Amino acid sequence: MDANKIWNQTLTFLKDEMTTVKYKTFIEPLTPSFADDSLIILTAQDPFSQEQVIPMIPLIRNCIAAAIGKEMDVKVELPGSALTLNMIHERSSAAPVVSNESSASQLNPGYTFDSFIVGSGNRFAHAACVSVAEGGKQYNPIFLYGGSGLGKTHLMHAVGNYVLSRMPSKKVVYVNCERFVNEFIATIREGKYDDFREKYRNADFLLIDDIQFMERKEQMQVEFFHTFNELYESGRMILMTCDKPPQSLSYLEERLRSRFSSGLIVDIQPADYETRLAILNRRIQDDHISLPDDVVDYIASNFASNIREMDGAYKTVVAYCIMANAFTLENAKIALKDLITKPERQVTPELIVEVVARAFNITVSDIMSNKRSKDILVPRQICMYICRSELNMTFPKIGEFFGGKDHTTILHACNKIEKSLKESDTEISVHIDSIKKRLFN
């Protein structure tokens, strides 16, 4: 049966059965992947969307029956699911597919270069991975390291997806190191060393995530050493991610550490505010919803160290606001009240500059530059004033932070802002009150 035809007819009924926000957020993005006489499989974009749609299955069944005059079972799956692939292959009389053994099925189709937001903290890593995916071999191996949730895995999947989309004959093998270790343990138990080595040593691109799990596993390290050498010497690409640089893997053999360090080592830093904002706006655009600017700012401001946590906060806010039937800052604060711990937030000169830049709709680079136009100069002076009045920084320290400015320049800036406040300059007062609330409340 034509899955698209069934689903398009069903959508006309579903649209009338729920709020516009819920329909556009969770139902409209669903893709019909398979249909036969009794079953339709719908593909959700991500696990969160899948969780939200599953309780709606009885309603979807009813709308299908109303649309086409017969009842059908409904399954909601994720991209590349074994159920979907097996149903498609069974229908075409092919042998069922074990999806987790194929290169593509181990890659998240949503993790592409197009969906990756480039910022100052990840620009170099992104450029290196694009170069490798396009066939460049000057960086081998590539070792990406950084904290959790900063985009290392996304970049690795993007390389694999890019290569397979343009060179489908290439053998791309992606594996999380924990699974790699478990496979090796099973290999030892079953004695199938040839199968294990054929899988990994014949790869054109070996993408191995969380390499730190190999520490303290001596036999595994010996096997990987030989795998690494064979791939490297034959000019095939090796990409690894880790939570720390190679030199810090103290429970890894020295010969492996030296090989990991022989290529390109890239540190991925936490995303700055502008990058976090861009990531959230991309999600909002992809989800076809409208989120007020103050809600987006609230999420971006309070989840600065981990993009994965920020993404979870975004989904939590969307789900709560849909249930409350109102996208407001107040609802966002309620939704995230247990996830945000304000006392741990340390106010620093860097944070002050970031908050002031947002308040005046300019960039951090503008404030830290030598530009002297009024739209830049006044925010810079406010930053200096707050560093002095709230952090008790000395004039020389403030001058050092702002690029080596003389302490008399800092003194002049602080005196000017103080004078404006004493003279009841309403515009300056409102700005400073608003900035202090963002910093300290």
How would you summarize what this structure contains?
This protein is of the alpha/beta class and 441 residues long. Helix content is 55%, strand content 9%.
| Distance, first to last CA | 57 Å
Helix content: 55-70%
Q: Work out the strand percent.
A: 5-15%
Overall number of strands:
8
C-alpha geometry: flat
Number of helices: 21
Written overview of the protein:
The protein is built from 21 helices and eight strands. The chain has 441 residues and is of the alpha/beta class. The strands form two sheets. It has a five-stranded parallel β-sheet, sandwiched between helices. Helix 1 (3-14) packs across helix 4 (57-68) and helix 19 packs across helix 20 (407-422). The termini are far apart. The relative contact order is 0.07.
Helix and strand topology:
Elements: H1 3-14, H2 20-27, E1 31-35, E2 39-43, H3 47-53, H4 57-68, E3 73-77, H5 82-91, H6 123-133, E4 142-145, H7 152-166, E5 172-176, H8 177-190, H9 193-201, E6 205-209, H10 218-233, E7 237-242, H11 254-260, E8 264-267, H12 273-287, H13 293-302, H14 307-324, H15 329-335, H16 349-359, H17 364-368, H18 374-391, H19 395-401, H20 407-422, H21 426-440
Parallel strand pairs: 2-3, 4-7, 4-8, 5-6, 6-7
Antiparallel strand pairs: 1-2
Keywords:
single chain; 441 residues; alpha/beta; five-stranded parallel β-sheet; three-stranded mixed β-sheet; 21 helices; 8 strands; 9% strand
